[in-house]
Amino acid sequence: MFTQIKFNLYYFLKYSYKTVLTFWLIFLGFLLFFLCITTLFQSFEIEFVGVNTLPSLIFTAIFAVLFFKETFPAIIKFGSSRTSYLFAYVLYLILFTITMSIISNVFLFAMGYIIDFFHIDNFSYYGINIMDHQIATSQLILYESFLYMFFFLVFNIVAALLYKFGYKVSIVFLIIVSFPIFVRSFADELFHFFAQFIITEKEYSQFSFFILYIILIGILWLIVRNQSIIDKITNK
Questions:
Q1: pLDDT one-digit tens code per residue, 82-128
Q2: At what angle do helices 2-40 and 82-117 cross, to 10 degrees?
Q3: N or C: which end of the chain has fewer CB within 10 A?
Q4: Residue 126 in 3-state DSSP?
Q5: CA pair distance 82, 30, nearest whole angstrom
Q6: Transmembrane ranges (predicted)?
């Protein structure tokens, strides 16, 4: 089991590091491009606002779907068990979250330093700190990490559903699950429930995230424990 977990984790890292690195390099290229434009044309009424949390969360969601689709059948074909896949997955999830959070905040610090050093007034760059300046920086960094982990887990579950049941059954299931959102009485209750996951709300609790992660990992395990390696979307 331990050998399988190490192999799985190595495979996850080998599969993903180029993709993650490519995203941040492309993102850096866009930032430098717009930074150069605003620096050259400071005398004109040109102003740009850059954000890093939203693009990186969108990337996390897309990457999570592709990650499951590519790694699950490959790992099982190599002879690893589904249990070892899940253990390695949890370890990778932690590493991915830490990596994304560190790079995101390095970008935030570096861009802030450049803007202040060169006195660039028409370029603003924000991260998760755009939410509330009264919240400690350490808490915001931790919260951003929570979001990366949440997005990765949720969209992995979506990918697992699509992989196991195909488009039709998965869409019907997701519609049924999301239906209470459109019923006002349920929506109000859901808002009060999700308030504990919003850092700007007084009900916010870090402990709630850990419970949520355990539930999501449990759901993912229920999906993959007997899952075939045949993709129901492409039948491969």
A1: 999 999 999 999 999 999 999 999 988 888 888 888 777 777 777 77
A2: 20
A3: C
A4: strand
A5: 40
A6: 21-42, 48-68, 89-115, 140-162, 169-187, 207-224
In angstroms, the CA 157 to CA 212 distance is: 13
Nearest to 81 by CA among 69, 93, 92, 89: 89
CB 223 within 8 A of CB 164: yes
- The total number of residues written for the chain in this structure: 236
- Tokens 């992995």 label which residue? 156
Candidates 116, 206, 217, 223; CA nearest to 160 is 223
Residue with tokens 């890093």: 52
3-state secondary structure of 127: coil
What is residue 50's DSSP assignment?
E
pTM of the model: 0.87
- Cα 228 to its chain centre, rounded Å, is 26
In this structure, are residues 208 and 196 in contact, taking their beta carbons and an 8 Å threshold? yes
3-state secondary structure of 70: helix
What digits encode the pLDDT tens for the residues 51-90? Answer: 788 899 999 999 999 999 899 988 988 888 999 999 999 9
156 within 8 A of 222, measured Cβ to Cβ:
no
Residue found under tokens 């920086």: 137
Using DSSP, state whether 96 is helix, strand or coil: helix
**Residue 203 — φ and ψ, nearest 5°?**
-80, -5
Chain mean position to CA 97: 8
